[in-house]
Amino acid sequence: MRDSVGRTGRFFYSCCVWLALLAAPGLGAFAEDCNRNGVEDDLDLAAETSMDCDGDGVPDECQLSPVAFTSREIGITVSRYPRAIACADIDSDGVLDIITANKDGDTRSMVSVLKNNGSGIFERADFDDAVRASDLDVADFDGDEAKDLLTANYYTIEILWNDGAGSFEERLSVPVERGTRHAAAGDLNGDGLSDIVTTNDRSNRAWVFINTGDRSFSDPVPYSVGSVPSVVRVIDIDNDGDLDVCTVNVGSGTITILDNDGSGGLGSSTTVATGLESPAHLAVADFDLDESADLAVASEENIVILYGGDFTERQVFEANAGELVVADLDGDGDTDLGYSILGNRRVAVLLNVSGNFFSRPVEFAVDIEAGLLAAGDLDDDNDLDLVTAYERHTRVPILWNNDQSGITVESRTIGMGPAPHAMVMEDLNGDGYLDIATGDGLGSSITIFLNDGAGNLRPGGTRTVAAGDYLNSIDGGDFDGDGDIDLVTGAIQDRRMQVFLNNGQARYGSRSLYTTGVRPFMVEVGELTGDEFPEIASANETAGTITVYLNSGNGDGRFGGRRDYRVGRLPVAVAMGDLDGDGDEDVISANRGSRNLSVLMNEGDGSLGAAVNYTVDGTPWYVVTADFDADGDVDLATANQPNRTVGIFYNRGDGTFGEGVTFDSAHGPYSMVAFDLNIDGIPDILTANQSADSVSALINRGDGTFNPAVTYNAGNAPRFVQAGDLDLDGDVDFVAADHDGRTLTLFRNQAPVESRDTHREVICTEIDYYDMSTPSRRGRDLKFVLPSDPSDESRLPPLFQNGRLFDLHQDFLTAVFPDRFPLLGPVEYNRLVGLRETRQYYIGSVTRIASPRGPVYGFSVFTDISESASQMLTIEEVREIYQTLRSVFGLEVLAYVPGTIAAREAAVGWEDPGFPIYLDVEGSSGSYESYTEAVGYGTVRVLTEQAFEEANDNGGLSFRDILILPHAPRDIEGVVAGVITGMLQGPLSHLAIRTARRGSPNAFVEGAGSAFTPLDGILVRLEVSGSEYDVRPASFQEAEKFWEANQIRLGAPPAPDAEFGSLTRLSEFDFTADAAALVGRYGGKGVNMARLQSLMTGEFEQYHEVGFVVPTRYYLEFTRNNRLFSAVEPLRIVTYEEYIEELLGTDRFRSDSEYRFEMLDRLRDHMDDNSTVDAELVRSVAERIGEVFGETADRVRFRSSSNVEDALEFNGAGLYDSTSACAADDLDNDNDGPSRCDPENDNERGVARALRKVWQSVWNFRAFEEREYFGIPQQDVAMGILVSRAYADERANGVIFTGNPSNPLDDRYLVTSQVGDSSVVSPEPGVLAARDLLVVDQGQVLEINRASSSSLLPDGQNVLSEAELRELGNLIWHIESELPIDLGEHDASEVVFDIEYKIESNGDLAVKQVRPFLRNAQLPPSPSFSLQIAANTGACVGFGNSSIQRGALQVLELKSKVRLRQGEHILPSSSLITPMELIDEVRFGPEGRLLQPVGPGMLRASRIENTNGTTRHRFLFDQVFAIDDELRLKLRLFLLEPFTARGPDAVREVLVFNELYVEDTMTLQGEITSVADPDLRRFIDYSSCRYDSLDLWEVSSQLEDGTTVSILEKYRPPSENDEFGPIRLRSADLNIRGQRKRVTSYWKLVYSASRHNTFVRHWVVLDPPVEVEGFDRAVAVFELVAPQLNSQGAVLQEPLGRYLDSDFEEIGRSDVAAYSLELFTDPLPILFQRGDVDLDGSLSITDPINLLIFLFAEGEAPGCLDTGDADDSGDLNITDAVNSLGYLFRGGAPLPAPFLECGVDPTEDELDCESEPVCP
After folding, report:
1. DSSP state of 820
2. How far apart are CA 412 and CA 417, in angstroms?
3. 1215-1246 burial, b if ≥16 CB within 10 A, otherwise e?
4. What is the average pLDDT score of the chain?
5. What is residue 404's predicted lDDT score, i.e. its pLDDT?
6. CB 775 within 8 A of CB 730
7. Beta pairing partners, 1810
8. How far apart are CA 1127 and CA 1141, in angstroms?
């Protein structure tokens, strides 16, 4: 399949534009060679040079138009009339601006600069030019990196100098030959400065002005060209690396090419005949991809393409073309050709596909004549937009490419006599089509337009209804309950509302009048009382009130009980919506006088509370309600007319609102509506703009923010707009009421026509995908059926079902293939698709997900994991599914989306899967891992391993090199600009740490060599981020600026102490001394180690280490007492110190890295071989070793401790050398081996040797380079030595960071470990260390995450045990908490500790080193968010993906209830993981057993950057509970929305977690695992325990044996998106052969079904069981099987009643005589008084006595169990009796409500009232 089929980012609308164009009358059909590749289409397809995946005989590339240009703005204007236009970044803000050169007659010209704010909104600035401007170009003429402007002005050329901010107050005027109309800029002589070329149509010459570099130009040099030269282009025509000059000559019909001689001279010329008469426009580009320049030239009749070489090959297109633009407009990598069509309001694009132009252009309308044309990405969405202008208009229209801000519409105007002011769109005559009723704003009538069913407001369909004067507003509702729409209007001068009742045929009888306050500006219909009869309200402008009339509710359509409510000043609009989620609608008014909103909450009976006001940033003229941010609650939007904005007020979830956010609406909105215009499931906004004669659409980005307004021309002064699907094509159309024009403007939304195909075998284009898919919460879903064995020809081929026709895969298979699948019951269906052992087909869906990088087509697959997690897809199965889909699905990017948590966790661990995986945030398929996220500039050097080693060993690497290596070296000697390796490095390798410390980009990239080879030797900019890298060529000036800006200068280290000479024990350090002085005396490592030992007291005494430090004084003496030959004067002998000073003063040493390497190597060699160490010092150190360590015959370690390491700003990791020493070798009075400490070593390992080894490492090349990079004075460096014990026999070693060094949000301890003494910081190539992540709090390890294992161990083995990790965590917590550190100017979040440790062979833990480490990233803005959990909020295991196909016993055993912890919980975003408690209790199993937590809960934070500059913060809470000694239940609560912030400021900061949230949004999942069996994994889904918002349904059945059953359930009949539930059983009433049983306990009611609530079964557990005559065992469970039909009505499951014992074994069964599922009307709630057990109306001693008799003496149960629940715990026990007695006789607290009066139990529990209490 060709790449062009699957290009990302394409809107399906664009395909429709192209297909519609081809089908338009008069355009004809495709030519036989539609793609113009020289091969007829049928031959193309036969040879497979083109593909035809949909089999229609037309190459696929000819049916795709990847461009869809739409207009957005009406009124971008410039000064005077534009004669030239260009796009460039004028103000250096990274986004393109628009520049026009404008002429007004022949007297004056201006340049207009339209500065872009980044989203396509422009601010204009005008600057003086000369006269008669006719051409424009943009270039940096003065070398200040700001774009200057060049204009041609007939008599002069003008250079306008940019001040760097996009202002042009200075200009240079250069006189030229009269008749100079065109000019262009380019660097002709290669000096880095732009020169100028002009053409003169009077002298037939081109003139060259060479830039002299001082804002002046040389005298011009003329060159002859053709007759009447016009446009001039400066471009490399002959591909020789310099710029040539090309002119089109109108008079001679030719093109002249002036060849550059390389120095700016235009020596030879070539004339090319165009074959056109009077060609006036020219463009140059490589159209045919042959790496040579082609020419495009246009006249008023044709466009000719002249292909490079000798330009004899040509291609002609008929076109009346104006200006030409060459650019990659469709983003496919080749150059397209755009042009304006003269004398026509259209712009055309000739699309290029792989070097061949389409046979026809695609045309796009603009609202003025098209003339000038330019291209650029004006809205920063990575595609090119077009901007046009015309010399007789000051407007500058823009055509936006693939504009996500708008929709494609077709408009028409409908005339009418009255002046339509307000409008309502409803089905007025009951025919199923939306009609329109308008009110006359100047007269006294209502005009009705009836819809003919095709969206036409049919002629003769208008009707007029007499009404009051000046109908300012109108609305509709079914006031009398007869099923049709009645009308209400506001008559602004009559101070009344008028109600017109509909007779069912859109004929309205007499009106009823209802008085209001003064000037009822707007009326609104809404349901306030809950009786399903709507109320009416008016906003009374002058009165400052809202008037509400309540519907009588008896079906007569009358209203009474007028109520007036005070609101803000001058209310002009009123709206209704359920703001607080309590089930009734509240009221909002928009008050233009007080510039605020008034919110009045409904008190439940239609009466309203006092107004709460919210200030509007503007003057609101309208208000609407909708859930704009998709968080499940109702938000508010205002139309702020004078401010030209729309305001959004986001609901906090409780009916209160934060500060409003405004969005530019382009024009002043008079009114607005909220509808989903682009079919993405999220409401958008339409505004009617009275003053601009337009309608604006603001498309919702999906998060409650909006794209820039797209404006559509309407009639004269539209005041109102309404929307709905007028033509029943599945999308929203809209109508504007043009008040002053007395017209309606109808806008039809142009979405594709829905397909009626049952399925397709191939998806080629986005139109195919749209035809078969349906909207879903994630985007759009396309369901598929794939054979599990594609090679089995007996099975169906891959199929994509039409989701509009078939919601269910099961229905699709049985309906379309009845012979193959006559009946599919749940078991058969599950065997067919769900279980690996019997599966014949995979079923699933492909979802179009809007990702930050464009659309992703994510496929997920259903598997039955209800019994075993082993049924999850393997990597091999997913790969096979991907390959099958890839063969029949042509859109990109296709990726696997795991459908469950377990599948997601499995997919994260797959390495190199062979297919993309999408995990919502940017995932990785194992081909990339970043180590340092940073930007660097340097020259790419692709090196083999051998070449790298040679360069590394010889100083052949520079800080300006970016290394591309096939391996992961242990270290790099020098400083480089960046590193990319083809092998994983390990995050704590010296290489990774050093690049992180330097801020140099570093990453692993699979196939790095081949990826970077094309850039080898090229100066580039490399950026490494968390999910990808970006590389591009860079200029030297750009790189040099970066290097200079990023030069680090740490300054001098602490001065070494030349006097102090004591060999100081670690325990003898005086920490009262100055800290810097201590470092200067002992070095950083020694000081840190001494500080560490001072902490090892008490329980940490066991970790105490001994040692001492050789101070820096002895290094200084060593460098001053040893001598060698001078590096500058070879015959002179100098000290080491003088030698170093000589080198530092040598230019060659500073500039030549290889020479620097050689000289330092020489110095170290001399130190090693020829230096002497003071013998007294050697003996003192040897004796000190014996004193400190108690033995001289054991090896000790000499470790570097310079004054420039282990510091916060410079840790020096891996720069210096350490070595071992044997003191006994110095005390044995001989120089002969073997070593006394190691008899196997033939040589002595004395103290002098060790001192030299460490001291000479000061001048390691890598150490020198690192210090130089950080600006540390080299002459100030000195070396102390820490002498510590050597670890002779270590079982493991490693490094711990007390936080992720690269991610300041991750505070987990990062433990890297390796077996034995294998290095973790400098591993052998290919060796990977183990990584464990610890969550530690107060020394307790709360969580251990085994991130990766050691490659040196077999699978399943760990370097460190869990006990060792817990010991480490406790010790490191102590060190981190107690070790002092000077943060300087840094925040504590920027610093972690780097700690090296050992595990010795006896299991002892030892800390070898500790140093502070400065993270290479600062903590990002981290706002806090709030989770507010309402009282009694909980969740219960319900029907979900993990429960399908489970039997009743399993469902019963897995029942569970979770109660969440009430109150406000702060969710911090500053840490990835935070311990937190959100769960109060968990009950589990059929008895509701209380579970105990295994550990604390964990809140895990993540963040996603939005394209609009905001950040979405997401949280996941999890906690583990013990079911028993073996089984564990892990709960995961996903808090994904609505937390949004802009930088540090929260935009959406509160989530109200209440029953409504639990019902609609909550995701709480449980996973059951086994301590003993790691393969055991079961999943359960939690949902609402109550489902208050759902209707109550009754399942009623009568069995043929006489048993009756009534089951009440909260239920919503499933839609296409409800695969599982929602459902909750409430009660069951059974009469089994005369024995009545009522069951209300959640734990005793069981529901099970297949997907989409099909094949339903109910079980009722009877406790105690019931003895039934004729059965040999008691009935413990009753099962009711529901009937199931397929889409054709065939019976798939017969209804049945079954009697089961306690083991769920069948005792007996009966057929069902009657079965029904109907809505149930809840009876009135039962009222009772708490404590009144005997129901006598009062609380007395008899009540607790009766309760105790019931509880302990088998007494009669209370008639209402709720009365005995004195503590409202939901259970009856002795505590209830005690509480009642305490209140009666000991002055105890009153009992919970309802107490001492009748009332309803406020708490849902399992207690019930069997008989009606004596209570009113």
Report:
1. T
2. 17
3. bbbbbbbbbbbbbbeeeeeebbbbeebeebbb
4. 84
5. 53
6. no
7. none
8. 10
User: CA-CA distances (angstroms) from residue 324 to 70, 82, 338, 371, 543?
Assistant: 19, 16, 6, 10, 61
Helix, strand, coil abundance in the chain, percent, nearest 5: 15, 40, 45
Confidence of residue 1446 (pLDDT cuts 50, 70, 90): low
Asked if 771 and 802 count as a contact pair (C-beta separation under 8 A), the reply is yes
Q: Mind listing the pLDDT tens digit for each residue in 617-674?
A: 999 999 999 999 988 899 999 999 888 899 999 999 999 999 999 998 878 899 999 9
Burial of 427 (0-12, 13-18, 19+ CB in 10 A): middle
1108 CB neighbour count, 10 Å cutoff: 26
Between CA 276 and CA 341 the distance in angstroms is: 17
Tell me the C-alpha distance between 1668 and 1671, whole Å. Answer: 6
Backbone angles phi, psi at 947, to 5 degrees: -60, -40
Beta pairing, strands 961-965 & 978-981: parallel
The sign one gets for the Cα dihedral 1709, 1711, 1714, 1715 is positive
Q: pTM of the entire structure?
A: 0.54
Q: What is the structure's pLDDT at 569?
A: 92
Please, is 21 exposed, middle or buried when counting C-beta atoms within 10 Å of its C-beta (0-12, 13-18, 19+)?
Answer: middle
Q: How far apart are CA 1244 and CA 1192, in angstroms?
A: 13
Tens digits of residue pLDDT in 141-155 = 999 999 999 999 888
Residue 466: other Cβ atoms inside 10 A: 11
- The alpha helices in 1461-1616, defined as continuous H runs, are 1555-1560
Q: What are phi and psi of 1008, to 5 degrees?
A: -60, -40
Which residue is associated with the tokens 């609102």?
657
Q: Could you identify the residue written with the tokens 């020219």?
A: 282
Q: Yes or no: say if 799 and 784 are a contact pair by the CB < 8 Å rule.
A: yes
Cβ contacts of 235 within 8 Å, gap of 6 or more: 186, 243, 244, 246, 284, 293
Distance separating alpha carbons of residues 1250 and 1178, to the nearest angstrom: 10
Residue 159 pLDDT greater than 80, yes or no: yes
Mean pLDDT of all residues in 775-786: 76
User: Which residues are bridge partners to 1646 per DSSP?
Assistant: 1659
Q: State phi, psi for 945 to the nearest 5 degrees.
A: -60, -40
Mean pLDDT across 900-915: 78
| Ramachandran sector of residue 354 (left: φ over 0; alpha: ψ -120 to 50; beta: rest) | left
Identify which has the larger pLDDT, 1649 or 1111: 1111
Say how many CA atoms lie within 13 Å of 785 toward its Cβ: 27
CB atoms within 10 A of CB 1175: 10
1147 burial type by CB count under 10 A (0-12 exposed, 13-18 middle, 19+ buried): exposed
Nearest to 623 by CA among 572, 548, 696, 569: 572
Segment 856-900, tens digit of pLDDT: 888 988 887 666 677 889 999 999 999 999 989 988 889 998 876
Rounded to a whole number of angstroms, the CA Rg of the chain reads 41
- Main-chain dihedrals φ then ψ at residue 1621, nearest 5 degrees: 80, -160
pLDDT at 1188 over 90: yes
pLDDT (average), residues 1509-1526: 89
- What pLDDT band is residue 925 in, cutting at 50, 70 and 90? very low
- Asked if the peptide bond before residue 1664 counts as cis, ω within 30 degrees of 0, the response is yes
Question: Distance of CA 1680 to CAs 160, 882, 1455, 1657, 1665, Å?
Answer: 86, 41, 19, 6, 17
Q: Is the pLDDT of residue 119 over 80?
A: no
- Label the pairing between strands 841-851 and 779-787: antiparallel
| Euclidean distance between CA atoms 1299 and 1749, whole angstroms | 62
Q: Which of 1656, 1658, 1623, 1663 is nearest to 1639 (CA)?
A: 1663
User: 717 burial class (0-12, 13-18, 19+ CB within 10 angstroms)?
Assistant: buried
